[in-house]
Amino acid sequence: xxxxxxxxxxxxxxxxxxxxxxxxxxxxHCQRSGNTQRFYRLYCADWVNIVAQTPEGKIxxxxxxxxxxxxxxxxxxxxxxxxxxxxxQAGCRELLEETGYSGQDAELIGxxxxxxxxxxxxxxxxxxRDAVPIQxxxxxxxxxxxxxxxxxxxxWRLVDDGQIRHGLALDALLxxxxxxxxxxx
Length: 185
Description:
Number of helices: 3
Radius of gyration: 19 Å
Number of strands: 10
Largest sheet: 4 strands, mixed
Shape: elongated
């Protein structure tokens, strides 16, 4: 397989598989330099993050323990997009599962690639208006999430103070900020 940028994939093999991702390896040849090197790529489902705003203008945040950091993290709701779901449907489903909230006028406001150097997936940001609690959360077997609605000022204080550390949550909040301040392109 060749692409138009001077790189050639010489082979690709499955190295590892888990319920959440696969790792594949390939020897990649750079036509410019003549070098060949082994690269690894994570095949993951796409993800979604949700910026949910209550009728009072507050933003929902969640707190959950993360194995990667070994700590409780302050984030926004989010999760994996299931096969056949579009990002907006997935965002509304994840919001309901993790917080028990549902809202109106959900819309896609952003898309990033978490790490295009080694990952195949995208992360979408969905904005939901008028989010209100309609049921108890339905956590996955290894989730224990707390949710609260905070003011925009408190949200940005948490960002400024470095208390929101999840890179994809920060990306989503940037899309939200740009949307609110008319700075989208």
